[in-house]
Design a protein that fits this description.
3-stranded antiparallel sheet; Tetrahydropterin Synthase, Chain A; alpha+beta; 299 residues
Length: 299
């Protein structure tokens, strides 16, 4: 009786251990691939509790979430012969757990290697300007190149993004000088355009002031007010040039010996000396350049 009881207790313990070892819980973010005696079962275990055959079945869990994989920086030469270092990031997910486990040994490592080789290939096919400004097209090209080998493995490539493009220091300095020259060119063009527009406005203003001389005096007074408003100790007062010419003409009329600006003094004897055979001209008289033709001097 005691021996039978021991045997029963041993059987019960064995059953409990077997049930406990065969009981599994699959999470919502996972799928279970069951291997029975080494053979993969076509039925994938869904989320929730599931039972396995003790000592016969083995289950491997596969995460179904979108995975983020950084791609290490890859050195390459662009199509326009510029050495760059580019790194990227790949977003992918498993859409067929059975194929992801059976078709490839380690799908994450495989995706990483394919991403690195594809990135180097994209670098060699692209120019530097495309890497810097046209990344959307390159991202799409990378996604197509990764999706081709990943589809038979049960992997779906969600997206691929180029993160950073590292340039040599010499290239950075060259691009900096180019950008600075471009900004300087734009600045000069804008300044020249502003000067041209200002000259047109000043020309119109001058034409308007010519018709109304009082406007010039009002403008002069306004300029004086603006200068005085800045609390300067020195006041610059413009002096009309016409007034200077008036004083100069008055001084010359009073004393002919005073020279006039821009009019050289006559040389001594230039008026008194006359060619031989021709009479000297009177003051203010104009001699006929062709004597003997019947013309007389005009006063």
């Amino acid at each position: 009786m005691g021996v039978l009881l021991i045997v029963l207790l041993a059987l019960v313990a064995l059953v409990v251990v077997g049930v406990a070892s065969s009981f599994r819980v699959v999470k919502q973010i996972e799928r279970g691939v069951v291997f029975r005696l080494g053979r993969a079962q076509p039925e994938v275990r869904r989320p929730g509790p599931t039972l396995l055959v003790p000592f016969v079945d083995r289950m491997r869990r596969v995460n179904m979430q979108v995975a983020t994989m950084p791609v290490p920086g890859q050195d390459g030469i662009t199509r326009d012969n510029v050495t760059v270092r580019v790194d990227a990031v790949v977003y992918f997910r498993v859409h067929d757990p059975l194929r992801a486990v059976v078709e490839v040994q380690d799908y994450q490592y495989a995706i990483s290697q394919v991403a690195q080789t594809s990135l180097r290939s994209i670098i060699g096919k692209s120019e530097l300007d495309d890497l810097l400004s046209n990344r959307e097209r390159l991202n799409q090209g990378l996604e197509v190149m990764l999706d081709s080998p990943a589809a038979p493995w049960g992997i779906e490539i969600d997206r691929v993004e180029i993160k950073d493009v590292a340039l040599p220091e010499a290239m950075k300095r060259s691009m900096s000088r180019q950008a600075e020259a471009e900004r300087e060119r734009r600045s000069r063009v804008i300044t020249a355009d502003g000067e041209f527009q200002a000259s047109k406005k000043l020309s119109q203003a001058a034409a308007a002031m010519t018709g109304t001389p009082g406007a010039l005096q009002l403008r002069l007074m306004q300029t004086m007010v603006e200068v005085a408003a800045e609390r300067n100790s020195t006041l610059v007062l413009p002096f009309p040039v016409e007034l200077l010419r008036y004083f100069e003409a008055a001084a010359h009329a009073a004393d002919p010996a005073v020279p006039r600006a821009g009019i050289p003094d006559p040389k001594p004897g230039a008026v008194d000396a006359a060619p031989e055979g021709r009479p000297a001209a009177a003051d203010g008289a104009i001699l006929d350049p062709a004597p003997g033709t019947g013309r007389v001097p005009l006063d």
